[in-house]
């Protein structure tokens, strides 16, 4: 039984050697047969060279390099595609996901679990704003996809069956964290404490997180589109009231004022219209991206006997 560990890495030159060493130690201590697959997500530093260095000493370490930065989601999916294991663990390569949890996941998998979700016990050190917005995001997401996603993360183990299901999905805008819930299968949970990042810094800015949140929410739900209908209905109800009032005033011969009302109406309706167009536009953009059918990522180089894993 082979365990593949997929590690997306974007500008992580300081982490590669250390992570490979720590993982190797933990897995060897538990007699787990493994391969490590580092996906360098178009790193601009020596990440890929570092992978090359460690893989020269250990053939179980493999790697692939993207032609540019495609994002963590793409890196995860590339890893899944290149992995040859009977089970695949996805984890960050900055060791914020504690490697000691992997043997636990492995045991649960051997006992029949097909998905083992890593659940964050604490969120580690984060700013208050980050914590609040993440909380809000997960509340909304859990509502939208009707599954409790709170405290979920990209740290999980998937059975080969599940990996094949995810790889078979035709969509380009993927949200790995939620897709593993969506797919179903027999699920177990392990909780873990998020560690401090040892080297380098977080690769996410507030803006990129916000974009990530909007893209993921809309790729999983059409609820925002229904919001447009709700806004339209509200305007119509409001306009019926005003219609009657205006008509009554006209008939009673006092219909000259009302300039303020006109301005307010234009503003409110204009706002509703723009917002609705924005929401619809966002979905059209999503459809456009999907229809173009471009690949999720482009691999420029690989290390190790990685191509063999491909079906
Ligand atoms: N990552 C990636 N591509 C990106 C951004 C991040 O592959 O465009 C990787 C990164 O190298 C790390 C993981 O995703 O292994 C999590 O990123 P990070 O530690 O910066 O996020 P945080 O832990 O702060 O949420
Ligand atoms: Mg991290």
Describe the structure.
There is one protein chain. The protein is an alpha/beta fold and 311 residues long. The protein has two domains: 2-126 and 151-201 and 297-309, Spore Coat Polysaccharide Biosynthesis Protein SpsA, Chain A (Alpha-Beta Complex), CATH 3.90.550.10; 223-292. 51% of the residues lie in helices and 17% in strands. It contains ten helices and eight strands. It has helices at residues 16-29, 47-57, 72-82, 101-110, 128-145, 160-167, 176-183, 206-220, 223-251, 259-292, and strands at 2-9, 33-40, 61-66, 87-90, 115-122, 152-159, 187-193, 299-303. An eight-stranded mixed β-sheet has the order 7-5-6-4-1-2-3-8, sandwiched between helices. Strand 1, helix 1 (16-29) and strand 2 (33-40) form a beta-alpha-beta unit. Helix 5 (128-145) runs parallel beside helix 8 and helix 9 (223-251) packs antiparallel against helix 10. The model has no long low-confidence stretch (mean pLDDT 85).
Low-confidence stretches: none
In CATH, the architecture of the largest domain is Alpha-Beta Complex
The percent range for helix content is 40-55%
Number of domains: 2
CATH class of the largest domain: Alpha Beta
Largest sheet: 8 strands, mixed
Q: What is the fold-level CATH name, i.e. the topology of the largest domain?
A: Spore Coat Polysaccharide Biosynthesis Protein SpsA, Chain A
Mean pLDDT: 85
Q: What small ligands are held by the chains?
A: uridine-5'-diphosphate, magnesium ion
Oligomer: single chain
Q: Whole-Å distance between the termini? A: 18 Å
| Spatial arrangement of strands, main beta sheet | 7-5-6-4-1-2-3-8
Cα-based radius of gyration, to the nearest Å: 25 Å
Series of H and E elements: EHEHEHEHEHEHHEHHHE
What structural class do helix, strand and pairing data support?
alpha/beta
Rough shape?
Answer: elongated
| Percent strand | 15-25%
CATH superfamily of the largest domain: Spore Coat Polysaccharide Biosynthesis Protein SpsA, Chain A
How many DSSP H or I helices?
10
């Amino acid at each position: 039984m082979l365990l593949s560990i997929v590690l997306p890495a974007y500008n992580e030159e300081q982490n590669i050697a250390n992570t490979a060493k720590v993982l190797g130690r933990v897995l060897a201590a538990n007699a787990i047969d493994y391969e490590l697959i580092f996906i360098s997500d178009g790193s601009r530093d020596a990440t890929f060279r570092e992978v090359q260095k460690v893989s020269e000493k250990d053939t179980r370490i493999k790697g692939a390099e993207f032609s540019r930065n495609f994002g963590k989601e793409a890196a995860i999916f590339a890893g899944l595609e290149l992995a040859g294991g009977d089970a695949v663990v996805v984890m960050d390569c900055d060791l914020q996901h504690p490697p000691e949890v992997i043997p636990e996941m492995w045991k649960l998998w051997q006992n029949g679990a097909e998905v083992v979700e890593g659940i964050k016990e604490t969120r580690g050190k984060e700013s208050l704003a980050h914590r609040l917005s993440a909380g809000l995001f997960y509340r909304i997401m859990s509502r939208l996809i009707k599954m409790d996603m709170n405290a979920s993360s990209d740290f999980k183990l998937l059975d080969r069956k599940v990996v094949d299901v995810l790889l078979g999905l035709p969509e380009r805008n993927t949200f790995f964290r939620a897709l593993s819930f969506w797919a179903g299968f027999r699920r177990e949970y392990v909780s873990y404490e998020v560690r401090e990042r040892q080297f380098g810094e977080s690769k996410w800015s507030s803006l990129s997180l916000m974009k990530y949140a909007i893209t993921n929410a809309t790729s999983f739900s059409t609820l925002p589109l229904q919001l447009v209908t709700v806004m339209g209905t509200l305007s119509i109800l409001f306009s019926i009231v005003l219609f009657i009032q205006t008509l009554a005033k006209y008939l009673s011969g006092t219909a000259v004022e009302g300039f303020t009302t006109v301005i307010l109406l234009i503003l409110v309706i204009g706002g509703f219209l723009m917002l609705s167009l924005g929401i619809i536009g966002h979905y059209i953009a999503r459809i456009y991206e999907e229809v173009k059918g471009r690949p999720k990522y482009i691999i420029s180089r690989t290390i190790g006997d990685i191509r063999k894993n491909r079906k």
